[in-house]
Amino acid sequence: MLLSARRCMVSLFIFALQTSQITAVPEQGKENALLPTWNIVGGNGGRNTGNCAGNDLQALQGSWEEACLMARKANADLSWLEATAINTRGIGPAAPEGKKKSSDDYIEWRRILDTYIAFFGEIPFNQQGDAGVANVDVGRLKHEHSQAVEDFFRDIERDFCQSASSSRGKLLVCTDETYRFIKNGEIDPGDAQGRKIEETHPNCEGQGGVWYSPDLPERLRYSEEPPPGESGTRPLCNSRDDDMALTLRNVNAIFFCPLALDSTQTLPTANNLRTQIKSRSRWRKKDVNKDEIAQKLLNRGIGTVEDPLGNAKETLSVIFLHEMLHLLKGAIDNQAVDINGNPMNDGVETAFRATKAYGLVHARNLATHRPDLARKNPDNVAYFAFAMFFDELDWSRGYAMSKRS
């Protein structure tokens, strides 16, 4: 069973100390509406039965709308970049001469292209002189970039964000609290013949049993994840690993974990705070130490969403896009690399388990050293969409700067 967990990450933006409030969300069946695009499942009640209801539902409605808007903007910006590259033979709009003011097209070109390179490590379109590139294809997006990045945003906009989009069998579940571990020797609650759990699931006898939920559809009812461990480990949402959400691609389901639905940990949307983003133009200086910037980002000195108490938060809309990469593309969370390109792990205590490329710093390092992986890494793609959404700023270094003039 493919299980792609979404861990806590360092957000790439900085806001004033305010919180976000959900305003009106799209009506059911309208553009960017959560319903009926997603099939919300679970029992009667809220998250304790797997059902997204009340505040959880409202938060997800707002975050899905914003995820759609981010995908639309990223798709439009990439289309503009490609059209401009084709029209200019891959050169782009003319740069300003001397002290002349830059044209709007040049500023836009640099904003999109530089940010793309920052998150994916490469120029995405064919250039004059590239090996094997026909003259007619100069300026067009390279196949590997079109397939991994542009097609993802286009598919979301076309198939999931239009009026009356159908669920296409995609399931949304709020938490895994409805699961109970059925131990060996106990009757399988879902078996009409009343057999014991080790009889109906013999392949799991060695681990002592199987997780079962009476409130979820048949394809989600059993989970063969390991049994409960220390700290009350759940089958899917593991609090020890700070899981925000996870995707079970083989059953077309996304689970949002309690941490993601905790308003002290996440913001449903970021758009309400748009006016609070602070430009960090002073970081443009060429002599700024890159290690220093990376350390500030890791320490949340740059790039956090904070509430009035200074608690850093995630944004559900970005998490949604991350999980959609798992669901639609089968993308995996790649192993992170350090600033020098060395593979990272989280130490001896967990037997050198690979550190996942979550968060801005890991996304940027992956783009620098492994662009072949960066364009497929969920956080790289999700963060790029976020950066395109806030187009009044230049995010080409991963934090807000005033646009180039």
TrEMBL record:
<protein>
    <recommendedName>
        <fullName>Lysine-specific metallo-endopeptidase domain-containing protein</fullName>
    </recommendedName>
</protein>
<dbReference type="GO" id="GO:0008237">
    <property type="term" value="F:metallopeptidase activity"/>
</dbReference>
<keyword id="KW-0732">Signal</keyword>
<feature type="region of interest" description="Disordered">
    <location>
        <begin position="218"/>
        <end position="238"/>
    </location>
</feature>
<feature type="signal peptide">
    <location>
        <begin position="1"/>
        <end position="24"/>
    </location>
</feature>
<dbReference type="InterPro" id="IPR024079">
    <property type="entry name" value="MetalloPept_cat_dom_sf"/>
</dbReference>
